[in-house]
Write a structure and sequence with these properties.
Layout (H helix, E strand, L loop, with lengths): L1 H15 L9 E10 L8 E2 L10 E10 L7 E2 L6 E2 L4 E2 L7 E11 L7 E3 L9 E9 L3 E8 L4 E5 L3 E3 L3 E9 L7 E4 L4 E6 L10 E8 L3 E3 L2 E8 L1 E9 L2
Antiparallel strand pairs: 1-9, 2-8, 3-7, 3-9, 4-8, 5-7, 6-7, 10-19, 11-18, 12-17, 13-16, 13-19, 14-18, 15-16
């Protein structure tokens, strides 16, 4: 009997000291706000989504008039950091830009919204993707580039050290009202604004991919008609 009790105690101790399983990043909730030209209001506010209370990282991009390029404010008072450069669209005399922001290890919950103040042109066109990556404690890598017009536009590379969630964003730069674009390399399109009204808008598409191991990754977008696009690629890991 004593031997059995000792064996049982040893098994309990081994269980108590077993290492915790590391959570793997994954796509969470997401929304895409769009205002067409002349039909917008200030502030621009995304539809509410339900995010995790802790442990997620958030991405917001602001594409539209340069004078409306304010930093995002969200309903859970997270601190937003701009990542990369503010990119100026070709061909519009500096009138339009895109910026990206992240909040790593963010606070969240039900009815989570993001707002952008439109100081220069409240009625102007704007597009604002809002994406949650769950179980993501670090933005491991980020790439931004602006390829010349072509049928296939390829992002810069990101490098991961383990499992990661990749988020890719495409911003078309031409006066195209009916656009098709799709990502390759096992990316899945999750949000897009590609068919524009006659009064115009800011074309954008968002995709993601889960990767299970360390590596270097990119994404190519195949689109028609041919135009240039501002491309972003984010790689989030647990830590």
């Amino acid at each position: 009997m004593a031997a059995l009790l000792i064996a049982g105690a040893g098994a309990t101790q081994a269980s108590d000291t077993a290492p915790a399983v590391q959570a793997v990043p994954s796509l969470g909730a997401h929304a895409l706000l769009t205002h067409s030209e002349g039909m917008g209001v200030s502030p621009a506010i995304t539809s509410p989504i339900d995010t995790q209370s802790t442990g997620s990282s958030l991405i917001v991009l602001n594409g539209g008039y340069a004078g409306n390029a304010d930093k995002p404010v969200d309903s859970y008072a997270n601190r937003w950091k701009r990542v990369g450069d503010t990119v100026v669209y070709n061909g519009y005399s500096g009138a339009f830009t895109v910026s990206a922001y992240t909040a790593v290890s963010a606070k969240g919950g039900a009815g989570h919204t993001v707002s952008i103040a439109k100081r220069a042109n409240p009625a102007g066109e704007i597009s604002v993707p809002f994406i949650e990556v769950m179980h993501a404690g670090v933005l491991q890598d980020m790439a931004q580039n602006y390829p010349a017009p072509g049928l296939v536009l390829t992002s810069g590379n990101v490098t991961t050290t383990g499992p990661a969630t990749l988020v890719a964003v495409w911003w078309g730069d031409a006066g195209v009202k009916r656009m098709t674009t799709r990502p390759d390399h096992e990316f899945t399109l999750i949000d897009s604004y590609l068919t524009l009204p006659d009064n115009s808008g800011v074309q954008v598409a968002v995709a993601y991919r889960q990767v299970a191991s360390a590596g270097t990754y990119n994404v190519s977008w195949i689109g028609s008609p041919i135009q240039g696009a501002i491309l972003w690629l984010f790689a989030f890991q647990a830590k």
